């Protein structure tokens, strides 16, 4: 199976997750490559082809590129195996870490015609060494909503990598069966 993993990452963590997903897809015998999403892609459905999109949340939304990609390609993606995963901080909380309970996932799928075969959401990371002062101040506010203390002096990662691996293996199995 030829699987493209399209990645929308601002500070690199979603790209790390996309890379791990692609590694596992390859272990499962697929051809897999990671590309940065532009939103201008045109998916040509063909047997043996599949697409995964991974995107982080920034200020409440996925990138407009992700929305554009989903709107443009929804019809084509209905013919091939496809999956979407979101990455955000809110998903670090129990009760907000499923596609049904995570606000950004719900908002996206209420407004996009794309119906992927698999949807998941993973908790992201925080790395204050990368943020400008405005972003850092806003994230410290979000942190309060998370109801937990965070060490701002070092990179903190909330991602459950076992869940990422399970997602990738499950997609391999799904893609192998085709649509
Ligand atoms: C400027 C900024 C805004 C963010 N906004 C949100 C948000 O609204 N909700 C949320 O749950 N997480 C938010 N996050 C957390 C990111 O989704 C998390 O850091 C993720 O790991 C970033 O992935 P990336 O490095 O691939 O962009 C924000 C992070 C940054 C830096």
Fold and architecture overview:
Pfam families: Flavodoxin_5 (PF12724). InterPro entries: Flavodoxin_dom (IPR026816), Flavoprotein-like_sf (IPR029039), Protoporphyrinogen_IX_DH (IPR052200). By secondary structure, this protein is an alpha/beta fold. Helices cover 39% and strands 21% of the residues. It has helices at 13-27, 64-77, 103-111, 133-146, 161-177; strands at residues 2-8, 31-36, 49-56, 82-88, 118-123, 125-126, 156-157. Helix 1 (13-27) packs across helix 5. The mean pLDDT is 94. The structure holds flavin mononucleotide. Flavin mononucleotide (FMN) binds at residues 9-14, 56-60, 87-90, 124-126, 131, 135, 139, 142.
The side-by-side strand order for the widest beta sheet comes to 2-1-3-4-5
Average predicted confidence as pLDDT: 94
The level of helicity is 25-40%
Distance between the termini: 13 Å
Number of strands: 7
- Give the class from helix and strand content and strand pairing: alpha/beta
Order of helices and strands: EHEEHEHEEHEH
Strand content: 15-25%
Low-confidence stretches: none
């Amino acid at each position: 199976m030829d699987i493209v993993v399209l990645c929308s990452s601002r500070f690199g963590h979603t790209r790390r997750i996309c890379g791990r997903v692609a590694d596992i897809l390859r272990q499962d015998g697929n051809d897999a490559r990671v590309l940065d999403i532009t939103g201008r892609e045109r998916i040509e459905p063909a047997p043996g082809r599949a697409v995964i999109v991974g995107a982080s949340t920034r200020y409440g939304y996925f990138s407009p590129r992700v929305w554009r990609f989903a709107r443009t390609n929804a019809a084509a993606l209905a013919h091939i195996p496809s999956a979407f995963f979101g990455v955000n901080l809110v998903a670090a909380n129990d009760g907000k870490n499923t596609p049904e309970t995570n606000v950004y996932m719900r908002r996206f799928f209420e407004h996009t015609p794309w119906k992927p075969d698999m949807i998941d959401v993973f908790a992201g990371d925080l790395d204050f060494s990368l943020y400008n002062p405005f972003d850092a101040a806003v994230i410290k506010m979000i942190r309060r909503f998370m109801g937990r203390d965070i060490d701002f002096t070092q990179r903190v990662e909330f991602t459950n990598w076992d869940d990422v691996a399970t997602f990738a293996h499950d997609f391999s199995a799904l893609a192998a069966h085709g649509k």
